[in-house]
Every structure is written in C-alpha cells, then in structure tokens.
Design a protein that fits this description.
- The protein has 291 residues and is α/β, with parallel strands linked by helices.
- It contains ten helices and eight strands.
- Helix 5 links the parallel strand 4 and strand 5.
- The N and C termini lie close together (5 Å).
C-alpha cells in the first residue's frame, strides 16, 4: 500500500449465490494453503475473520446471502474506521454486495468501482435466466434488485454509476448490457481489449473509477483471467486475461491514493490444479502490500 496501512483480510465463505456451491470453500482453503502461509508473516498483513452465512433451515437462499452481506459490510466498515485497508476473499460474487456496501457506509457516499469479470453480474430477479444471485451483485450495488440486498450500506446506490467500469467481460446477456448502459456504466469487454490492448483499456478504466470524489475499489472475479492460468474458479470462461497483465494492473492499482478496498472472489479449490489459482491469489496479495 502506498500509504503504509496494514491490510486486513476478511474471508466471505459463501457459495449460496452460485450454481457450483464449492466457492464456499474458497476462503478457508486459501487460508490453509501453502501460498497463504508463505505470506502470513508479512508485517503489513493480518487475516481477520472468516465469515459464514447463517444456517439455511429456516431461511431462503437470498435471505442467507443478505445476512452474510450485512455482517461483511459491518466488518469492512470497522476495518476502515480502524485505519486498516480491507481486502475481501470470497466466496461467490454475491458477497460483493456486502464488501462495497461496507465501504460506501465507511466513506459516507457512493464510490467508484472497477469490476474485473468475465461476466456483467447485472441481472435483476426479473431478468435472470438462472436465478443465481452471483449474477446480480453489481445491479444491487447500483440500487436495483431484491430489496433484501439493497440499502445495506447507504440508502440507494452504493456505487456511482458514472464512476463504474466493467473490464474483461466476455459472457453476458442483452438484458445486462441494456441495464448497465441505462445506468451509465462503462463496459470494456474482451473484444475491445483485444482490439485496443489491455494497457490502454486499463488506463481508461482507472481514469473513470479513480475520479470518484470519495475514492474507488476493485472487485476481481478470478474468472476474468484465462482458465489456463486460473483454473480454480466457479464459472470458467475461455480466452480470458493473461495472469501477468492482471498482476501488473494490481500492482499499479494498489499504489493509487484513492483506493479504498480490494476484493478477490469466486475461488473454487475443487477446480484448482496444483495450487495454481491459490498461488495467483497470494501473488496478488503480495502486490497489494508491495504497492
């Protein structure tokens, strides 16, 4: 971190929002991995708590996700108020509702957000083809969706649409494009990255999100990365971003003064090979404390 703050890692262990629930095991598996153990003694790092959704016997899936997101939002806000830097490890991407609601509450207004993902995650319950909540969190953060997932941090939107960019998307439905375009969110998809180059697209994206008055965050779904380099993800899509490009971007982002929090989600240890994806997560955390 450019400002020397201690990085506090919070695990958000939920797979409830996904079709493949094994992402729930991601935070605990990573916390116990050799990749994390090699980092754990770093003086700027602290693994705080790993949070779990409540038991599902009397609650619906969405109610359980909402309960976890409220707890996560409180944890992230507390981390900020204690002068530490929040880094959340998920869990399926529905946990982002908690992460960024907590940041928005902590800074007192909607923030800019760079959403690096193979998907747009901008369905509402009415438009979703699958009903999976991990396909809805960005819409929720923009103020649209199931009411139980709205207003967890601030009333209304948690993210400023004019300071939000989705980078790297390559699998999505037209309803999501329509929604984000109406909101004014910039979408830089895989085809545009191939045409213009990753560096130029990243530079534009950072210019948009970092101009948010109260700062910005970065949410990385590991499926944005080509599965050759990150096989351990919940919803792999071919032809993603090179891991080296993501690491370089992460190093730059971690050093920017307006950065408020980071999030890495959708780690699925059942699909990892030889710890490749766990090591990539550790490398990104290493870039965070070096930035």
């Amino acid at each position: 971190m450019s400002d020397g703050r201690r990085v506090r890692v919070t695990g958000a262990a939920s797979g409830i929002g996904a079709q493949d629930v094994a992402c729930a095991d991601g935070p605990v598996a990573f916390h116990h991995s050799q990749a994390w153990q090699a980092l754990a003694r770093h003086p700027a790092l602290d693994w705080g708590r790993t949070l779990f959704a409540p038991n599902g016997e009397r609650l619906s899936r969405t109610a359980r996700i909402a309960a976890l997101c409220r707890t996560l939002a409180d944890e992230v806000e507390t981390t900020l108020r204690q002068g530490q830097f929040p880094l959340v490890i998920g869990g399926d991407h529905s946990v982002a509702v908690g992460t960024w609601s907590g940041v928005a509450r902590g800074i007192g207004q909607p923030l800019g957000l760079l959403w690096i993902d193979a998907h747009l995650d901008s369905h509402t319950p009415e438009s979703s083809y699958s009903g999976a909540v991990h396909g809805m969190p960005l819409a929720c953060l923009l103020g649209q969706g199931d009411r139980r997932l709205l207003g967890i941090g601030l009333p209304g939107a948690q993210v400023s649409a004019g300071h939000c960019v989705v980078l790297g998307a390559r699998s999505y439905e037209p309803e999501e494009i329509d929604f984000l375009c109406r909101q004014g969110v910039r979408i830089i998809d895989g085809e545009e990255i191939a045409r213009r180059g990753f560096a130029a697209c990243l530079d534009e994206a950072v210019g948009i999100v970092a101009s948010a008055p109260a700062g910005f965050g970065v949410s990385l779904d590991l499926d944005a990365i080509d599965p050759r380099f990150a096989p351990g993800v919940g919803s792999p899509e071919p032809d993603g971003l090179p891991a080296a490009d993501v690491r370089t971007a992460w190093r730059w982002l971690a050093g920017l003064p307006g950065l408020r929090a980071l999030e890495i989600v959708e780690y699925n240890p059942d699909r990892d090979r030889h710890g490749m994806t766990a090591q990539l997560i550790a490398d990104l955390i290493g870039e965070t404390v070096a930035g």
